[in-house]
Write a sequence for this structure.
């Protein structure tokens, strides 16, 4: 993916490290900063520049030209004092876009009082996804569009295998639309190595598409209708 975007990621814990790697893999210029030399060493040769630095040192931060970045992401996750101080420095420097990871309700409230508009709450989002998966066995992933409609990913129900999309007639029978079909070619490796899942996507399925045992269905519709499909393999 070609891009001229320039990002700075401050804090190379599990979340920040993987964010930096994914941005770099997508072609962005990435400056990665952490106070831990060990963490920074993991990023050498993986991003444009990795620097060991105390992000609460305004002189040090200013020397890196962070103000000119398209966005600065504060991903610090160990106590929020360093995150708050770093965010205040970025505001003082006039960074045009500041995105901050909130690690607790108190931290989130303080960030909102600082008028930070873009907050990341990865732990809360992960908890929400896990709750959905626990409540709906068979669900691989879900993306809420609004309160009524979502996109769901599931393994193909056994009853669909070797049948065509036309014969199943998802839209009429279940009031669900099939967006596309995926197949995993290579499973995800260790995230800290930046390895990604390799997936084949068939595009827009034709009415004659024959479902395969390895298929992952990407569906669009209402949760109540989606549940009827999940119940097929129960």
């Amino acid at each position: 993916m070609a891009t001229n975007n320039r990002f700075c990621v401050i804090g190379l814990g599990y979340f920040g490290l993987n964010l930096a790697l994914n941005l770099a893999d997508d072609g962005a210029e990435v400056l990665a900063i952490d106070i831990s030399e060990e963490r920074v060493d993991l990023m050498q040769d993986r991003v444009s520049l990795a620097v060991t630095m105390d992000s609460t040192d305004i002189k040090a931060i200013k020397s890196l030209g962070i103000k000119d970045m398209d966005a600065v992401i504060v991903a610090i996750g160990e106590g929020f004092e360093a995150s708050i101080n770093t965010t205040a420095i970025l505001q003082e420097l006039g960074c045009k876009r500041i995105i901050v990871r909130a690690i607790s309700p108190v931290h989130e409230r303080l960030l909102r009082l600082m008028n930070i508009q873009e907050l990341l709450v990865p732990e809360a989002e992960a908890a929400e996804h896990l709750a959905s998966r626990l409540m709906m066995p068979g669900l691989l992933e879900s993306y809420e569009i609004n309160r009524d409609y979502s996109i769901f990913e599931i393994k193909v129900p056994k009853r669909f295998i070797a049948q065509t999309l036309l014969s199943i007639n998802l839209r009429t029978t279940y009031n669900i639309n099939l967006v596309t079909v995926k197949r995993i070619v290579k499973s995800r490796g260790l995230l800290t190595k930046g390895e990604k899942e390799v997936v084949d996507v068939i595009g827009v399925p034709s009415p004659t598409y024959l479902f395969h045992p390895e298929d992952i269905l990407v569906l669009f519709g209402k949760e109540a209708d989606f549940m009827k499909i999940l119940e097929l393999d129960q």
Remarks:
- The chain has two domains: 6-120, 126-233.
